[in-house]
């Protein structure tokens, strides 16, 4: 048998070879031992002293050490003792090789951890057999250690994998829970979804209560399942049953704790901190649902699943708290939005009622103004040569009547603009002519208060697209405002120019000025500055509001400026100018002629006056009789029909707002009568919008006058009609607003 045939099983890869340390001071002995052990196929390390042996022991691990006892310097026994002192080699087998060994030396060697003694000369088979045993043992131990490390690493990997899977499952569960809870901003939906997450996966029964601002405080939503499933989220579990149960169905102790928790819903930080973690009451576990230090409710757990991860449940409760807090905030926001909408609706309704009231007030005020105006004209005609006091009284009455009519018109205009009922009659107008008309309107007030009016107008016309009458109203209101708030003898300036393609109109005065706190509100409706108790400036605070809204209807803008009280004021109007050429002939409204004197009637007309207000009917009738006409007055439409058939009036002055049948229907019936088929029908009404004039024309009226109508204008209208060629179609200009 070959020498290595019995040791082939020790051969293997370099990683599996063991190291054998041979220590001897004689080279020939080292050579013999090395030759014998080469058959083992292991790694042989040969050194010749104890010091070299110690260095090798520190450097690597050995399966067995062959150590000569008798060596110069450090002998084998001392070397063995030092080898045993190292942690790595404390249990390494040591075989002493010696030429002789007495009992004392042998005992000392075994005490140092020697496993055997071999006498020289060595027997090769014996040496190889003994070394082989320790080499095999070392390789086996090393393999076992490696396997143990592999098992440990595998166990660690499996544990890490289980932890990762658990973390993944936990994360997936919490992510799913967050989506479910955040999927609705309704608290009731969120309550049901939270209980669906808890039962039956975590517990067989759970109850949830939100405090008074979300749910009635005496109700509890419960969820029950037969038995929890064996693993979290692995099985769907038993069907769940929901129910709203009375608080009395819970143990009294749980009920008391929930009541105590609710007491701190006001945000007591110290009390909330004491109840910030879960606690048990009998067989129930209570998890407070907190948003910061604010308790929102509580989750009660009964029949928890064995091995329940309470930290997961607490995290679920935290996420539920965020969802319920969002639901609470959303609910409060919805309530706030509803309240705001209700408030806005109330404001809109109040504003609409205000506009309707102003419109109705203005209309109703026209009725008493009409007979007063008519009566003044009657008095003036009946007493043409009356004494100075009568003339003075009629002049005062007429001036105050005009002032009152202007205030009523302003109220009505503001109401119409607010309701979107004003339609501009846009045409090409010269703003210089507009200014002239506006100045003429307020000339009496300026002269009365002895103001110095300075006009600065361009030499060329300033053309723009607009409503001549409404723009003149803007100028008049600004001048009227300046005159009203400037002391007698003050100065008013009006400047007109074109700047950057825009017409710029400035009205400046040295009057009372505008306080800084009032300046941002001068264009607000009914807003006025401080005035004395005598209210000698008059007005309702609607003039500037009307200016702003009329300017805005013309796509312009208006601003106010003042250095303060007593420093005067300046109003600046900017309007888009146009570069169109000047028309060949100015519209009649741009070059108004002075009113012609009332013509004497060409011939006496039969005039029928129909108005349910006796004062209006009688004063109009009296004035027209003074101009030479034959007049009758009636109070309603039925009387008008009966009188028309017998009286055959040539002119009918007809109120629109009549009882029983309105003026439009009366006009249609009169047009159907042979006696009045060709008569002049004049509508007399408090409504003067374009739609009102169109409706009047469609009903058969030939003229339209707004109360309080000027009696002189009415008489002139009749005279013009008498002189017109009535064989031609009646022209539209007879419609007068």
Automatic annotation (TrEMBL):
**PROSITE patterns, alphabetized:** HIS_KIN, RESPONSE_REGULATORY
**Naturally occurring in which organism (per UniProt):** Roseateles violae
Which residue intervals define the domain Response regulatory in the entry? Answer: 19-135, 606-722
In this chain the Histidine kinase domain maps to 360-579
Q: What is the lineage of its organism?
A: Bacteria, Pseudomonadati, Pseudomonadota, Betaproteobacteria, Burkholderiales
**CDD domains in alphabetical order:** HATPase, HisKA, REC_2_DhkD-like
Q: Can the keyword Cytoplasm be found in this entry's annotation?
A: no
Task: Cite the SMART domains for this sequence.
Answer: HATPase_c, HisKA, REC
- Indicate where the modification 4-aspartylphosphate is found in the sequence: 68, 655
| Record keywords | Phosphoprotein
Provide the protein name: histidine kinase
Q: What chemistry does it catalyse, as a reaction equation? A: ATP + protein L-histidine = ADP + protein N-phospho-L-histidine
List the Pfam families. Answer: HATPase_c, HisKA, Response_reg
Q: Which InterPro entries does the UniProt record give?
A: CheY-like_superfamily, GAF-like_dom_sf, HATPase_C_sf, HATPase_dom, His_kinase_dom, HisK_dim/P_dom, HisK_dim/P_sf, Sig_transdc_His_kin-like_C
State the EC number(s): 2.7.13.3
